[in-house]
Amino acid sequence: MTSQLAGMLEHFRDIDALDLSEVEPMTQPYPLKNVMREDVEAKSLDRQEVLDQAPAAESGRFRVPPTIGFDV
Amino acid sequence: MQKLVEIVAGVTSGSTTATAVVEEHLARIKAREAEIHAFNLVTADQARKDAAKIDDDVKAGKAVGALAGVPIALKDNMCTRGIETTCSSKILQGWKPPYDATVVTKLRNAGAVIVGKTNLDEFAMGSSTENSAFGPTKNPLDISRVPGGSSGGSAAAVSAGFAAASLGSDTGGSIRQPAALCGVVGVKPTYGTVSRYGLVAFASSLDQIGPFTSDVRDAATLLEVISGHDPMDSTSIPQPAASLVSVLDQGVKGMRIGRVTDLPEGCEPDVLARLEAAFDAMRNAGATIVDVKLPSLQYCLTAYYLIAPAEASSNLARYDGVRYGNRVDAADLNAMYAATRESGFGEEVKRRIMLGTYALSAGYFDAYYGKALKVRRLISDDFARAYKDVDAILTPTSPSTAFKFGSKTDNPLAMYLCDVFTIPTNLAGHPAMSVPFGVGSDSMPVGIQVLATTMGEQAMFKVAAELERAS
Protein backbone atom coordinates (compact mmCIF):
# COMPACT_ATOMS: atom_id res chain seq x y z
CA MET A 1 0.00 0.00 0.00
CA THR A 2 2.93 2.35 0.72
CA SER A 3 4.10 2.23 -2.90
CA GLN A 4 0.53 2.71 -4.18
CA LEU A 5 0.13 5.80 -1.99
CA ALA A 6 3.50 7.14 -3.16
CA GLY A 7 2.42 6.61 -6.79
CA MET A 8 -0.80 8.51 -6.20
CA LEU A 9 0.93 11.43 -4.49
CA GLU A 10 3.33 11.56 -7.44
CA HIS A 11 0.36 11.70 -9.86
CA PHE A 12 -1.20 14.48 -7.76
CA ARG A 13 1.85 16.71 -8.35
CA ASP A 14 0.25 17.62 -11.72
CA ILE A 15 -1.47 20.57 -10.05
CA ASP A 16 1.94 22.03 -9.12
CA ALA A 17 2.07 23.33 -12.72
CA LEU A 18 -0.82 25.74 -11.98
CA ASP A 19 -0.40 29.27 -10.67
CA LEU A 20 -3.01 29.34 -7.91
CA SER A 21 -1.79 32.40 -6.02
CA GLU A 22 -4.83 34.52 -6.94
CA VAL A 23 -7.46 31.76 -6.66
CA GLU A 24 -9.94 31.63 -3.77
CA PRO A 25 -10.34 28.13 -2.28
CA MET A 26 -13.79 26.56 -2.80
CA THR A 27 -14.93 24.52 0.20
CA GLN A 28 -18.56 23.86 -0.75
CA PRO A 29 -20.71 24.18 -3.87
CA TYR A 30 -23.65 26.19 -2.53
CA PRO A 31 -22.87 29.30 -0.46
CA LEU A 32 -25.24 28.83 2.47
CA LYS A 33 -24.26 30.51 5.73
CA ASN A 34 -25.30 30.24 9.37
CA VAL A 35 -28.18 27.85 8.91
CA MET A 36 -30.13 28.07 12.17
CA ARG A 37 -33.43 26.65 13.35
CA GLU A 38 -36.00 28.12 15.71
CA ASP A 39 -35.08 27.48 19.34
CA VAL A 40 -38.01 25.18 20.05
CA GLU A 41 -38.12 21.80 21.69
CA ALA A 42 -38.02 18.93 19.19
CA LYS A 43 -38.17 15.17 19.51
CA SER A 44 -34.76 13.51 19.83
CA LEU A 45 -33.71 9.92 19.25
CA ASP A 46 -34.95 7.32 21.72
CA ARG A 47 -32.11 6.79 24.22
CA GLN A 48 -32.66 3.07 24.69
CA GLU A 49 -32.92 2.49 20.93
CA VAL A 50 -29.57 4.26 20.47
CA LEU A 51 -27.85 2.41 23.32
CA ASP A 52 -29.19 -0.94 22.07
CA GLN A 53 -26.97 -0.48 19.00
CA ALA A 54 -23.80 0.36 20.94
CA PRO A 55 -21.09 -2.29 21.32
CA ALA A 56 -21.30 -1.87 25.10
CA ALA A 57 -23.62 0.19 27.31
CA GLU A 58 -24.28 0.41 31.03
CA SER A 59 -26.64 2.48 33.19
CA GLY A 60 -27.85 4.58 30.27
CA ARG A 61 -24.35 5.35 29.00
CA PHE A 62 -21.84 4.08 26.44
CA ARG A 63 -19.26 1.85 28.11
CA VAL A 64 -15.61 2.15 26.98
CA PRO A 65 -12.29 0.62 28.08
CA PRO A 66 -10.09 2.58 30.56
CA THR A 67 -9.21 5.99 29.09
CA ILE A 68 -6.55 7.28 31.51
CA GLY A 69 -4.22 5.98 34.16
CA PHE A 70 -3.97 2.49 32.73
CA ASP A 71 -0.19 2.31 33.19
CA VAL A 72 -0.21 3.74 36.73
CA MET B 1 -38.59 -3.97 -16.77
CA GLN B 2 -41.87 -2.59 -15.48
CA LYS B 3 -42.09 1.20 -15.53
CA LEU B 4 -42.65 3.06 -12.29
CA VAL B 5 -45.34 5.31 -13.77
CA GLU B 6 -47.26 2.28 -15.12
CA ILE B 7 -47.19 0.62 -11.70
CA VAL B 8 -48.56 3.74 -10.01
CA ALA B 9 -51.29 4.07 -12.64
CA GLY B 10 -52.21 0.40 -12.31
CA VAL B 11 -52.28 0.34 -8.51
CA THR B 12 -54.22 3.59 -8.09
CA SER B 13 -56.80 2.66 -10.77
CA GLY B 14 -57.23 -0.82 -9.34
CA SER B 15 -56.23 -2.63 -12.54
CA THR B 16 -53.46 -4.30 -10.55
CA THR B 17 -52.53 -4.48 -6.85
CA ALA B 18 -49.41 -3.45 -4.99
CA THR B 19 -49.26 -7.00 -3.68
CA ALA B 20 -49.20 -8.47 -7.20
CA VAL B 21 -46.49 -6.01 -8.27
CA VAL B 22 -44.33 -6.70 -5.24
CA GLU B 23 -44.73 -10.48 -5.65
CA GLU B 24 -43.57 -10.24 -9.28
CA HIS B 25 -40.43 -8.40 -8.21
CA LEU B 26 -39.78 -10.75 -5.28
CA ALA B 27 -40.10 -13.69 -7.69
CA ARG B 28 -37.42 -12.18 -9.94
CA ILE B 29 -35.22 -11.63 -6.90
CA LYS B 30 -35.72 -15.26 -5.89
CA ALA B 31 -34.83 -16.45 -9.37
CA ARG B 32 -31.62 -14.45 -9.92
CA GLU B 33 -30.36 -12.79 -6.74
CA ALA B 34 -28.04 -15.68 -5.80
CA GLU B 35 -26.21 -15.08 -9.06
CA ILE B 36 -26.30 -11.24 -9.09
CA HIS B 37 -25.93 -10.30 -5.39
CA ALA B 38 -27.55 -6.89 -5.80
CA PHE B 39 -28.74 -6.87 -2.19
CA ASN B 40 -27.20 -6.95 1.25
CA LEU B 41 -30.70 -7.50 2.63
CA VAL B 42 -34.08 -8.28 1.02
CA THR B 43 -36.95 -7.05 3.20
CA ALA B 44 -39.60 -9.34 1.69
CA ASP B 45 -41.88 -9.67 4.75
CA GLN B 46 -42.07 -5.94 5.39
CA ALA B 47 -42.55 -5.28 1.64
CA ARG B 48 -45.55 -7.65 1.59
CA LYS B 49 -47.07 -5.90 4.64
CA ASP B 50 -46.52 -2.46 3.12
CA ALA B 51 -48.05 -3.56 -0.20
CA ALA B 52 -51.11 -5.02 1.56
CA LYS B 53 -51.61 -1.72 3.41
CA ILE B 54 -51.60 0.20 0.11
CA ASP B 55 -54.08 -2.23 -1.40
CA ASP B 56 -56.36 -1.77 1.65
CA ASP B 57 -56.13 2.01 1.22
CA VAL B 58 -57.00 1.80 -2.48
CA LYS B 59 -59.98 -0.45 -1.71
CA ALA B 60 -61.16 1.90 1.03
CA GLY B 61 -60.99 4.81 -1.42
CA LYS B 62 -58.26 6.58 0.58
CA ALA B 63 -55.71 8.79 -1.17
CA VAL B 64 -52.47 6.98 -1.99
CA GLY B 65 -49.17 8.66 -2.84
CA ALA B 66 -47.33 9.44 -6.06
CA LEU B 67 -45.34 6.19 -5.79
CA ALA B 68 -48.16 3.89 -4.66
CA GLY B 69 -47.04 0.27 -4.84
CA VAL B 70 -43.68 0.93 -6.49
CA PRO B 71 -41.00 -1.55 -5.34
CA ILE B 72 -37.88 0.47 -4.55
CA ALA B 73 -34.41 -0.64 -3.44
CA LEU B 74 -32.16 1.54 -1.27
CA LYS B 75 -28.40 1.73 -1.33
CA ASP B 76 -27.23 0.29 1.97
CA ASN B 77 -25.78 3.61 3.14
CA MET B 78 -29.21 5.14 3.79
CA CYS B 79 -30.54 4.79 7.32
CA THR B 80 -33.65 2.68 7.78
CA ARG B 81 -35.01 2.57 11.32
CA GLY B 82 -34.69 -0.90 12.81
CA ILE B 83 -33.43 -2.34 9.51
CA GLU B 84 -29.75 -3.25 9.18
CA THR B 85 -27.65 -0.58 7.44
CA THR B 86 -24.08 -1.67 6.79
CA CYS B 87 -22.43 0.50 4.07
CA SER B 88 -21.08 -2.92 2.96
CA SER B 89 -18.55 -2.62 5.79
CA LYS B 90 -17.70 -5.08 8.53
CA ILE B 91 -17.48 -2.17 10.95
CA LEU B 92 -21.24 -1.48 10.65
CA GLN B 93 -22.44 -5.05 10.08
CA GLY B 94 -25.52 -5.66 12.23
CA TRP B 95 -26.19 -1.97 12.96
CA LYS B 96 -29.86 -1.01 13.02
CA PRO B 97 -30.26 2.77 12.80
CA PRO B 98 -32.53 4.47 15.35
CA TYR B 99 -34.03 6.73 12.66
CA ASP B 100 -35.02 6.89 8.98
CA ALA B 101 -33.20 9.00 6.40
CA THR B 102 -35.40 11.83 5.06
CA VAL B 103 -35.54 10.14 1.63
CA VAL B 104 -36.85 6.96 3.26
CA THR B 105 -39.61 8.90 5.04
CA LYS B 106 -40.50 10.65 1.76
CA LEU B 107 -40.62 7.35 -0.15
CA ARG B 108 -42.82 5.72 2.50
CA ASN B 109 -45.16 8.73 2.61
CA ALA B 110 -45.51 8.49 -1.18
CA GLY B 111 -46.54 4.82 -0.95
CA ALA B 112 -43.32 3.24 -2.22
CA VAL B 113 -42.58 -0.30 -1.05
CA ILE B 114 -38.97 -0.82 0.05
CA VAL B 115 -37.78 -4.25 -1.08
CA GLY B 116 -34.24 -4.20 0.28
CA LYS B 117 -30.85 -2.63 0.87
CA THR B 118 -28.40 -2.82 -2.01
CA ASN B 119 -24.71 -3.65 -2.13
CA LEU B 120 -22.02 -0.98 -2.65
CA ASP B 121 -18.30 -0.49 -2.50
CA GLU B 122 -17.50 -0.15 1.21
CA PHE B 123 -18.61 3.33 2.37
CA ALA B 124 -19.23 4.16 -1.33
CA MET B 125 -15.51 4.15 -2.13
CA GLY B 126 -15.03 2.45 -5.47
CA SER B 127 -16.25 2.08 -9.04
CA SER B 128 -17.07 -1.63 -9.32
CA THR B 129 -18.54 -2.95 -5.99
CA GLU B 130 -15.37 -5.05 -5.72
CA ASN B 131 -14.60 -3.16 -2.48
CA SER B 132 -17.74 -4.47 -0.73
CA ALA B 133 -16.87 -6.45 2.41
CA PHE B 134 -19.69 -8.83 1.47
CA GLY B 135 -18.57 -9.67 -2.08
CA PRO B 136 -19.17 -7.96 -5.42
CA THR B 137 -22.42 -7.45 -7.33
CA LYS B 138 -22.49 -8.91 -10.87
CA ASN B 139 -23.66 -6.98 -13.91
CA PRO B 140 -27.07 -8.52 -14.80
CA LEU B 141 -26.32 -8.09 -18.53
CA ASP B 142 -23.08 -10.13 -18.32
CA ILE B 143 -22.12 -11.62 -14.98
CA SER B 144 -18.42 -11.74 -15.86
CA ARG B 145 -18.45 -7.93 -15.74
CA VAL B 146 -18.75 -5.38 -12.95
CA PRO B 147 -21.97 -3.37 -12.53
CA GLY B 148 -19.95 -0.23 -11.80
CA GLY B 149 -19.94 1.50 -8.47
CA SER B 150 -20.18 2.50 -5.90
CA SER B 151 -24.00 2.15 -6.19
CA GLY B 152 -23.58 -1.06 -8.22
CA GLY B 153 -26.25 -2.97 -6.30
CA SER B 154 -28.84 -0.24 -6.89
CA ALA B 155 -28.06 -0.14 -10.64
CA ALA B 156 -28.14 -3.94 -10.91
CA ALA B 157 -31.43 -4.15 -8.98
CA VAL B 158 -33.17 -1.96 -11.58
CA SER B 159 -31.40 -3.58 -14.54
CA ALA B 160 -32.40 -7.08 -13.35
CA GLY B 161 -36.01 -6.06 -12.64
CA PHE B 162 -35.64 -6.67 -8.88
CA ALA B 163 -37.06 -3.20 -8.23
CA ALA B 164 -38.83 -0.67 -10.46
CA ALA B 165 -36.47 2.00 -9.15
CA SER B 166 -33.73 2.47 -6.60
CA LEU B 167 -31.80 5.19 -4.83
CA GLY B 168 -28.05 5.60 -4.85
CA SER B 169 -25.58 8.21 -3.69
CA ASP B 170 -23.09 9.98 -5.95
CA THR B 171 -19.86 11.52 -4.62
CA GLY B 172 -17.76 11.30 -7.80
CA GLY B 173 -19.98 9.36 -10.20
CA SER B 174 -21.37 6.58 -8.00
CA ILE B 175 -24.87 6.84 -9.50
CA ARG B 176 -24.06 7.77 -13.10
CA GLN B 177 -21.23 5.32 -13.81
CA PRO B 178 -23.10 2.17 -12.63
CA ALA B 179 -26.24 3.42 -14.43
CA ALA B 180 -24.18 3.59 -17.65
CA LEU B 181 -22.60 0.18 -17.13
CA CYS B 182 -25.95 -1.52 -16.35
CA GLY B 183 -27.98 0.23 -19.08
CA VAL B 184 -30.33 2.23 -16.85
CA VAL B 185 -30.97 5.92 -16.14
CA GLY B 186 -29.13 7.46 -13.16
CA VAL B 187 -29.37 11.03 -11.87
CA LYS B 188 -27.11 13.08 -9.60
CA PRO B 189 -29.15 16.18 -8.77
CA THR B 190 -27.76 19.61 -7.88
CA TYR B 191 -25.95 19.49 -4.53
CA GLY B 192 -28.53 20.38 -1.87
CA THR B 193 -31.59 19.28 -3.89
CA VAL B 194 -32.16 16.00 -2.04
CA SER B 195 -31.71 15.87 1.73
CA ARG B 196 -28.62 14.02 2.94
CA TYR B 197 -30.10 13.54 6.44
CA GLY B 198 -29.62 9.86 7.19
CA LEU B 199 -27.22 9.24 4.32
CA VAL B 200 -24.02 7.90 5.86
CA ALA B 201 -21.45 10.59 5.03
CA PHE B 202 -18.46 9.90 2.77
CA ALA B 203 -17.40 13.36 1.48
CA SER B 204 -19.98 15.83 2.72
CA SER B 205 -19.35 18.64 0.22
CA LEU B 206 -19.77 16.21 -2.71
CA ASP B 207 -22.33 13.54 -1.65
CA GLN B 208 -25.79 13.69 -3.20
CA ILE B 209 -28.66 11.15 -3.33
CA GLY B 210 -30.41 10.41 -6.62
CA PRO B 211 -32.58 7.87 -8.48
CA PHE B 212 -31.96 4.88 -10.75
CA THR B 213 -34.84 3.99 -13.08
CA SER B 214 -35.44 2.21 -16.37
CA ASP B 215 -36.36 5.42 -18.19
CA VAL B 216 -36.18 9.22 -18.02
CA ARG B 217 -39.86 9.78 -17.11
CA ASP B 218 -39.56 7.45 -14.11
CA ALA B 219 -36.41 9.29 -13.01
CA ALA B 220 -38.18 12.68 -13.19
CA THR B 221 -41.17 11.30 -11.27
CA LEU B 222 -39.04 9.82 -8.50
CA LEU B 223 -36.74 12.83 -8.24
CA GLU B 224 -39.74 15.15 -7.80
CA VAL B 225 -40.81 13.06 -4.79
CA ILE B 226 -37.44 12.96 -3.00
CA SER B 227 -36.39 16.59 -3.70
CA GLY B 228 -37.13 19.63 -1.56
CA HIS B 229 -35.84 21.58 1.41
CA ASP B 230 -35.15 19.67 4.62
CA PRO B 231 -34.33 21.58 7.82
CA MET B 232 -32.52 18.45 9.06
CA ASP B 233 -29.79 18.96 6.42
CA SER B 234 -28.02 22.31 6.80
CA THR B 235 -26.78 22.10 3.19
CA SER B 236 -30.29 21.62 1.80
CA ILE B 237 -31.23 24.38 -0.68
CA PRO B 238 -34.18 26.34 0.75
CA GLN B 239 -36.33 26.12 -2.38
CA PRO B 240 -39.21 23.86 -3.39
CA ALA B 241 -38.60 20.92 -5.74
CA ALA B 242 -38.52 21.77 -9.46
CA SER B 243 -41.21 20.46 -11.80
CA LEU B 244 -39.50 17.93 -14.08
CA VAL B 245 -42.11 15.64 -15.61
CA SER B 246 -43.79 18.70 -17.15
CA VAL B 247 -40.74 19.50 -19.34
CA LEU B 248 -40.10 16.02 -20.77
CA ASP B 249 -42.06 16.51 -23.97
CA GLN B 250 -40.81 20.01 -24.73
CA GLY B 251 -37.97 18.90 -27.02
CA VAL B 252 -34.60 20.60 -27.50
CA LYS B 253 -35.40 22.91 -30.42
CA GLY B 254 -33.36 26.10 -30.01
CA MET B 255 -31.31 24.72 -27.12
CA ARG B 256 -27.53 25.11 -27.15
CA ILE B 257 -25.70 21.87 -26.35
CA GLY B 258 -22.02 22.01 -25.41
CA ARG B 259 -19.31 19.78 -26.88
CA VAL B 260 -16.16 19.79 -24.73
CA THR B 261 -13.20 20.25 -27.08
CA ASP B 262 -10.55 19.45 -24.46
CA LEU B 263 -12.13 16.31 -23.01
CA PRO B 264 -9.62 14.24 -20.96
CA GLU B 265 -8.00 11.47 -23.00
CA GLY B 266 -8.41 7.74 -22.45
CA CYS B 267 -11.98 7.22 -23.67
CA GLU B 268 -12.64 4.10 -25.75
CA PRO B 269 -13.40 4.82 -29.47
CA ASP B 270 -16.73 2.95 -29.43
CA VAL B 271 -17.90 5.14 -26.55
CA LEU B 272 -16.79 8.30 -28.38
CA ALA B 273 -18.71 7.11 -31.46
CA ARG B 274 -21.89 6.98 -29.38
CA LEU B 275 -21.19 10.51 -28.14
CA GLU B 276 -20.99 11.71 -31.77
CA ALA B 277 -24.29 9.93 -32.47
CA ALA B 278 -25.80 11.76 -29.49
CA PHE B 279 -24.70 15.13 -30.91
CA ASP B 280 -26.24 14.15 -34.27
CA ALA B 281 -29.50 13.28 -32.52
CA MET B 282 -29.55 16.67 -30.78
CA ARG B 283 -28.82 18.48 -34.04
CA ASN B 284 -31.62 16.53 -35.80
CA ALA B 285 -34.00 17.56 -33.03
CA GLY B 286 -33.26 21.24 -33.61
CA ALA B 287 -30.54 21.97 -31.06
CA THR B 288 -27.32 23.84 -31.84
CA ILE B 289 -24.01 22.21 -30.93
CA VAL B 290 -21.54 24.71 -29.43
CA ASP B 291 -17.86 24.01 -28.70
CA VAL B 292 -16.84 24.75 -25.11
CA LYS B 293 -13.47 24.63 -23.39
CA LEU B 294 -12.99 23.35 -19.84
CA PRO B 295 -9.19 23.61 -19.48
CA SER B 296 -9.11 22.74 -15.76
CA LEU B 297 -10.90 19.43 -16.33
CA GLN B 298 -7.57 17.64 -16.65
CA TYR B 299 -6.88 18.43 -12.98
CA CYS B 300 -10.23 17.24 -11.65
CA LEU B 301 -9.01 13.76 -10.71
CA THR B 302 -6.25 15.18 -8.52
CA ALA B 303 -8.56 17.72 -6.87
CA TYR B 304 -11.19 15.06 -6.23
CA TYR B 305 -8.83 12.41 -4.88
CA LEU B 306 -7.44 14.92 -2.39
CA ILE B 307 -10.72 16.55 -1.34
CA ALA B 308 -12.88 13.41 -1.08
CA PRO B 309 -10.37 11.40 1.01
CA ALA B 310 -9.70 14.48 3.20
CA GLU B 311 -13.41 14.79 4.00
CA ALA B 312 -13.73 11.01 4.37
CA SER B 313 -10.84 10.84 6.84
CA SER B 314 -12.75 13.27 9.04
CA ASN B 315 -16.20 11.68 8.54
CA LEU B 316 -15.03 8.13 9.17
CA ALA B 317 -13.40 9.06 12.49
CA ARG B 318 -16.83 8.38 14.02
CA TYR B 319 -16.31 4.61 13.59
CA ASP B 320 -14.46 4.18 16.84
CA GLY B 321 -16.26 1.20 18.34
CA VAL B 322 -18.02 3.34 20.97
CA ARG B 323 -21.50 4.44 19.87
CA TYR B 324 -22.45 2.05 17.07
CA GLY B 325 -21.10 -0.69 14.89
CA ASN B 326 -18.59 -3.27 15.92
CA ARG B 327 -15.80 -3.16 18.48
CA VAL B 328 -12.66 -5.23 18.91
CA ASP B 329 -11.95 -5.19 22.63
CA ALA B 330 -8.53 -4.17 23.89
CA ALA B 331 -6.93 -3.16 27.18
CA ASP B 332 -7.31 0.61 26.79
CA LEU B 333 -9.24 3.07 24.67
CA ASN B 334 -6.58 3.82 22.06
CA ALA B 335 -5.77 0.15 21.55
CA MET B 336 -9.52 -0.51 21.16
CA TYR B 337 -9.83 2.22 18.49
CA ALA B 338 -6.88 0.78 16.56
CA ALA B 339 -8.00 -2.83 16.78
CA THR B 340 -11.58 -1.92 15.80
CA ARG B 341 -10.51 0.03 12.72
CA GLU B 342 -7.84 -2.45 11.68
CA SER B 343 -10.40 -5.24 11.71
CA GLY B 344 -13.46 -3.26 10.56
CA PHE B 345 -12.26 -1.27 7.54
CA GLY B 346 -11.30 -2.75 4.16
CA GLU B 347 -8.19 -1.91 2.16
CA GLU B 348 -9.63 0.88 -0.03
CA VAL B 349 -11.21 2.64 2.96
CA LYS B 350 -7.90 2.51 4.84
CA ARG B 351 -6.09 3.80 1.74
CA ARG B 352 -8.39 6.81 1.50
CA ILE B 353 -8.30 7.57 5.23
CA MET B 354 -4.49 7.59 5.08
CA LEU B 355 -4.44 9.67 1.91
CA GLY B 356 -6.91 12.18 3.38
CA THR B 357 -5.13 12.39 6.71
CA TYR B 358 -1.84 12.98 4.89
CA ALA B 359 -3.35 15.69 2.65
CA LEU B 360 -4.68 17.49 5.73
CA SER B 361 -1.58 17.15 7.92
CA ALA B 362 0.55 20.08 9.00
CA GLY B 363 3.30 20.71 6.47
CA TYR B 364 1.35 19.10 3.60
CA PHE B 365 -2.01 20.92 3.93
CA ASP B 366 -1.02 23.80 1.63
CA ALA B 367 0.68 21.53 -0.92
CA TYR B 368 -2.24 19.11 -1.24
CA TYR B 369 -5.63 19.94 0.31
CA GLY B 370 -5.25 23.72 0.06
CA LYS B 371 -4.26 23.52 -3.60
CA ALA B 372 -7.05 21.04 -4.37
CA LEU B 373 -9.64 23.51 -3.04
CA LYS B 374 -8.26 26.18 -5.39
CA VAL B 375 -8.38 23.78 -8.35
CA ARG B 376 -11.99 23.09 -7.40
CA ARG B 377 -12.65 26.82 -7.84
CA LEU B 378 -10.97 26.78 -11.29
CA ILE B 379 -13.17 23.90 -12.41
CA SER B 380 -16.29 25.65 -11.12
CA ASP B 381 -15.23 28.87 -12.94
CA ASP B 382 -14.63 26.92 -16.18
CA PHE B 383 -18.18 25.60 -16.02
CA ALA B 384 -19.58 29.05 -15.21
CA ARG B 385 -17.95 30.43 -18.39
CA ALA B 386 -19.19 27.50 -20.48
CA TYR B 387 -22.79 27.83 -19.25
CA LYS B 388 -22.91 31.41 -20.53
CA ASP B 389 -22.88 29.89 -24.02
CA VAL B 390 -24.73 26.60 -23.56
CA ASP B 391 -27.80 25.17 -21.78
CA ALA B 392 -26.37 21.68 -21.30
CA ILE B 393 -23.22 19.70 -22.08
CA LEU B 394 -22.88 16.12 -23.33
CA THR B 395 -19.95 13.82 -22.47
CA PRO B 396 -19.56 10.07 -22.11
CA THR B 397 -20.57 8.92 -18.61
CA SER B 398 -17.68 6.45 -18.37
CA PRO B 399 -14.56 6.02 -20.55
CA SER B 400 -15.51 2.40 -21.28
CA THR B 401 -18.40 -0.05 -21.06
CA ALA B 402 -18.59 -2.48 -18.11
CA PHE B 403 -15.18 -4.05 -17.53
CA LYS B 404 -14.32 -7.56 -16.33
CA PHE B 405 -13.91 -8.40 -12.66
CA GLY B 406 -10.35 -8.04 -11.40
CA SER B 407 -9.15 -5.98 -14.36
CA LYS B 408 -8.54 -2.83 -12.31
CA THR B 409 -8.26 -4.06 -8.72
CA ASP B 410 -4.44 -4.09 -8.66
CA ASN B 411 -4.14 -0.47 -9.73
CA PRO B 412 -6.17 2.04 -7.71
CA LEU B 413 -5.30 4.87 -10.13
CA ALA B 414 -6.74 2.92 -13.09
CA MET B 415 -9.94 2.43 -11.07
CA TYR B 416 -10.05 6.14 -10.18
CA LEU B 417 -9.85 7.02 -13.92
CA CYS B 418 -13.33 5.47 -14.35
CA ASP B 419 -14.65 8.66 -12.74
CA VAL B 420 -12.87 11.18 -14.96
CA PHE B 421 -16.06 12.39 -16.70
CA THR B 422 -18.32 12.28 -13.65
CA ILE B 423 -16.13 13.93 -10.99
CA PRO B 424 -16.21 17.50 -12.36
CA THR B 425 -19.94 17.96 -11.69
CA ASN B 426 -19.56 16.85 -8.06
CA LEU B 427 -16.76 19.37 -7.55
CA ALA B 428 -18.97 22.11 -9.05
CA GLY B 429 -22.13 20.90 -7.27
CA HIS B 430 -24.03 20.73 -10.56
CA PRO B 431 -26.62 18.19 -11.73
CA ALA B 432 -25.76 15.47 -14.25
CA MET B 433 -27.42 12.27 -15.40
CA SER B 434 -26.60 9.20 -17.45
CA VAL B 435 -28.94 8.01 -20.20
CA PRO B 436 -28.45 4.68 -22.02
CA PHE B 437 -27.60 5.41 -25.66
CA GLY B 438 -26.82 2.30 -27.66
CA VAL B 439 -24.06 -0.23 -27.09
CA GLY B 440 -20.30 -0.48 -27.52
CA SER B 441 -18.28 -2.92 -29.60
CA ASP B 442 -18.81 -5.56 -26.89
CA SER B 443 -22.63 -5.14 -27.07
CA MET B 444 -22.63 -3.70 -23.52
CA PRO B 445 -24.56 -0.47 -22.90
CA VAL B 446 -23.00 2.97 -23.32
CA GLY B 447 -24.25 5.85 -21.18
CA ILE B 448 -24.24 9.45 -22.36
CA GLN B 449 -23.92 12.03 -19.60
CA VAL B 450 -26.05 15.18 -19.69
CA LEU B 451 -24.63 18.00 -17.58
CA ALA B 452 -26.28 21.29 -16.63
CA THR B 453 -25.59 24.20 -14.31
CA THR B 454 -26.75 24.58 -10.68
CA MET B 455 -30.54 24.04 -10.52
CA GLY B 456 -30.48 23.30 -14.26
CA GLU B 457 -32.47 20.06 -13.88
CA GLN B 458 -35.21 21.15 -16.29
CA ALA B 459 -32.76 21.72 -19.17
CA MET B 460 -30.98 18.48 -18.27
CA PHE B 461 -34.20 16.45 -18.33
CA LYS B 462 -35.32 17.98 -21.65
CA VAL B 463 -32.07 16.85 -23.26
CA ALA B 464 -32.19 13.45 -21.54
CA ALA B 465 -35.74 12.83 -22.77
CA GLU B 466 -34.71 13.76 -26.33
CA LEU B 467 -31.70 11.41 -26.16
CA GLU B 468 -33.99 8.62 -25.02
CA ARG B 469 -36.39 9.24 -27.91
CA ALA B 470 -33.45 9.05 -30.33
CA SER B 471 -31.87 5.91 -28.85
Nutshell version of this structure?
Chain A is mostly helical. Chain A is built from two helices and two strands, in the order ααββ. Chain A has a two-stranded antiparallel ribbon with strand order 1-2.
Explained architecture:
The complex is a heterodimer of chains A (72) and B (471). By secondary structure, chain A is mainly α. Chain A is 22% helix and 6% strand. Chain A is built from 2 helices and 2 strands; from the N terminus they run H-H-E-E. Chain A has a two-stranded antiparallel ribbon with strand order 1-2. The model of chain A has no long low-confidence stretch (mean pLDDT 89). Chain B has an 11-stranded mixed sheet with strand order 1-3-2-4-6-5-10-11-9-7-8, sandwiched between helices. Chain B is of the alpha/beta class. Chain B is globular, with a radius of gyration of 21 Å. Chain B has 15 helices and 11 strands. The interface between A and B is large, with 39 and 57 residues.
Strand proportion of chain B, as a percent range, falls in 5-15%
Mean pLDDT of chain A: 89
Unreliable stretches of chain B, pLDDT < 50, 5 or more residues? none
What is the assigned CATH homologous superfamily of the domain at 4-247 in chain B? Amidase signature (AS) domain
- Give the neighbour order of strands across the main sheet of chain A: 1-2
| Beta-strand segment tally of chain B | 11
Helix content of chain A: 10-25%
Helix share bin of chain B: 25-40%
Radius of gyration computed on alpha carbons of chain A: 24 Å
Determine and state the CATH class of the domain at 4-247 in chain B. Answer: Alpha Beta
The number of helical runs of chain B is 15
- Sketch the major β-sheet of chain A: 2 strands, antiparallel
Q: How do the helices and strands follow one another from N- to C-terminus of chain B?
A: HHEHEHEHEHEEHEHEHHHHEHHEEH
* Weakly predicted, low-confidence segments of chain A: none
**Would you give the CATH topology of the domain at 4-247 in chain B?**
Amidase signature (AS) enzymes
Q: Largest interface, and how many residues on either side?
A: A-B, 39 and 57 residues
**Roughly how many Å is the radius of gyration of chain B?**
21 Å
Order of helices and strands of chain A: HHEE
